[in-house]
Amino acid sequence: MTMALGHATSGVRSLTREEAEERGALLAVDRYDIAVDMRGLFEGEVLESTSTITFRCLEPGASTFVDCVAEVRHATLNGQEIDLGTVKDGRIPLTGLAAENVLVVSAAQSDTGSGAGILRTIDPSDKLVYVWTSFEADDARRAWACFDQPDLKAPHRFTVTAHETWTVTSNGAPTSVEDQADGGRLWTFPDTPPLSTYVVVVNAGPFHELRQERDGHSLGLYCRQSLKQYLERDAAELFDMTAAGLAFFGERFGQPFPQARYDQVFVPNMGGAMENWGCVTWTDSVLFRSPPTYGQRETVASVLLHEMAHMWFGDLVTMQWWDDLWLNEAFASWASTWAAVNATEYTDAWATFLAGLKLSGYQVDMGPASHPIRGEVPDVTQAMANFDAITYVKGQSVLKQLVAYVGEDAFVEGLRSYFRDHAWGNTRLADLMTAVGEASGRELTGWTEAWFDRAGTDTLVLAGTEVLATAPDGGEPRPHHFEIGVYRRDADGAGLEAVGTAHVETVGTRTPIEGLVEGADLYLLNDRDLTFAAVRTDERSLRTLLDSAGALPDALSRALAVSTAWDMLQKGELSTDEMLGCVLGVLGSERSPGVVEPFLAMALKAAEQWSPAVAVPTQLVRLAEVAAHLAEDPDHRDPALRTLAASASDAAHFALLDAAAADNNDLAWRVLVRRAALGEYDATAVEALLERDPDPDARVRALGVTAARPEESAKAEVWSEIWDKRSIPAGSPLYGLAQAFWRPVQHDLLLPWTHRYLDEVDKVAGGGGMLAVGSLMRGMMPTTADQSFLERAREIAQQPDQNPTVRATLLTGSDTLARVLRARG
């Protein structure tokens, strides 16, 4: 899954690990036969289901419960009526179990508008209705009765009745579609393989469908009708990427994807993507309304390959309990970058990852919300709180370090045996590490504990011919396998050339370096970015890094130099001006599109958020001049123009932007946001752009222009749409609107609104889906603050009964803002 979707609803008990273990030891589920009636969603809000569960009890006469967070209308166990008065907390008690049992539960769910497992959406442009489901971690119980835990896997057979104008997608190809005498059509789907309840799916609506046959697979793409022009624009690349990914993973994992059908459904108002077996659901905000930049296309490729990797790691072989949930996500993230580098045009994907996402992992890991990658998960709610940059980003980085430690060939051989030995079953982390250890000949118990069971980031410092390693908790530092790149200036002094590489495997706090070439201008620690650590080099190397990072010959090395400068800024070791000078210097000559966009984003953040208020206009001018220059290069024109739109400072900048925006709606919206932030709101221009923009979500872009205005009434209007009406689609539309709202230079105006944000916490934490908790809390975290906000945020985070996701968001956000305030002076 990309971004967490789940629930945090009060009044419903979260399954505990102890309960799951007891139920898992007691039961074996043979199959689910689930009849879903979606006709009530065409004009209303009710989904109806009848779930028939065939299961065995290993201790006849015992009792347990089945999960169902819906209105239970009728239930029988082995033909005997169940007293519905016993249903409580989303659970139906089951008593007097036989050795073999058949449970039938009919239920109805009317909560189909909050994003908790099911979402019914009305397209604002044509009023067509679409419905999607997404069940990780335990939201299948909201749609129908099931034993909603990952280790009770079983085949699922769906029959779905839907409106006659709707197309239904599920985990496989339908075997029949028949008109019904009482209205609608009945879609019948075949048995799935044995699957966990969280990776099954039913989507429905008047989808636009595209299909291709590729290498023995039937590939499908679906979207709402109002976005079909964008899907058709991107379809060739999506089909190519899907075919390439299936081929790459099938070969490298030692077994092809075992069914012909592989669908991808782009749906409205979803905060990410979900790895349903054979039928991935995506946020349709990735169907970009203007031609996507290289970076946007690379992001789509990364998500596509991430969800695909889950078909093997997560769906075929599933973690037994959610304490190993991180491993699913870390592996899929690692595998997506690995596949992008080896099977697509995005060969600089590791550099892109370092310059962008990896920094978010370091950010969380250096703050008070840091936690071990592997931790105790007493119930499912806590599992969902751990969907953060530690899970995805640090986890991915640590797996990359594992590959470096044991060797890629051994790692792949270990994966092949892991998938072969555990197909359609459940595992723990030890099963994977045993397979990799046996393939590599390395004993990995100590390595596993050091990397997965301790929080925080180690620091590696070059001191003469030694590497000094320290751990943040004062304990023994982890073992690090990494490289030191040795660079000297070339003959004309303009470039840096590699003159050697030192391979280092640290043990303890001091590790001597063998073969380190002397007299270099730059010793670059962690070259090729093999480990997860803060790195510091000698003083001469630091000056070279800051002044000449752009002269490094490789995009990954340049990304490492810039990310090191960013880490030093966050820790108060470098001024914003010095950091900005480094990244702008690199951008002046950067040619890899894989790092241009994250470098531009980093530079913008440094200029407008991390700079002292008095310096912001000057810093934005510096950035705007670099962006205007980059815009002359066709390979970088679009991201450079977008950055220029955020930093434009004079008439020449706006003249360049206005000319480029004449036929580019996305850029035109960005220019209007910038003008509005500068006090130049133009209502007529907003209305004209709304008229010309075919995007069904264009109203959100118009709200972004309002949000940027330095006026109390404008902020209030947008705040009501976000928090009171909940009218903003989750994911990138909300994040874009939040970026327009929180303008750091509007500090005095925004301070009361930062406290309004904290006022909303209890409302968000108390109900709805993780779409609300995740998107609203993370997306709307202020980018400016004062000391009273920081103190209050920490107090709210530490409340004993605080929602774990809210706690982590407030702790990380307030820690970052404290660092920002120190940098501003």
UniProtKB/TrEMBL annotation:
Family matches, as SUPFAM superfamilies: Leukotriene A4 hydrolase N-terminal domain (SSF63737), Metalloproteases ('zincins'), catalytic domain (SSF55486)
Gene3D superfamilies: Neutral Protease Domain 2 (1.10.390.10), tricorn interacting facor f3 domain (2.60.40.1730)
Cross-referenced Pfam families: ERAP1_C, Peptidase_M1, Peptidase_M1_N
Reactions it catalyzes: Release of an N-terminal amino acid, Xaa-|-Yaa- from a peptide, amide or arylamide. Xaa is preferably Ala, but may be most amino acids including Pro (slow action). When a terminal hydrophobic residue is followed by a prolyl residue, the two may be released as an intact Xaa-Pro dipeptide
EC supergroup of this enzyme: hydrolase
Domain Peptidase M1 membrane alanine aminopeptidase: 239-451
Residues covered by the Aminopeptidase N-like N-terminal domain: 127-199
Keyword Hydrolase in record: yes
EC code(s) of this entry: 3.4.11.2
Cofactors that this protein relies on: Zn(2+)
This protein's record includes keyword Ribonucleoprotein: no
Span of domain ERAP1-like C-terminal: 522-817
GO MF annotation list: aminopeptidase activity
UniProt entry keywords in alphabetical sequence: Aminopeptidase, Hydrolase, Metal-binding, Metalloprotease, Protease, Zinc
Family, as annotated: Belongs to the peptidase M1 family.
Protein name: Aminopeptidase N
Organism taxonomic ancestry: Bacteria, Bacillati, Actinomycetota, Actinomycetes, Propionibacteriales
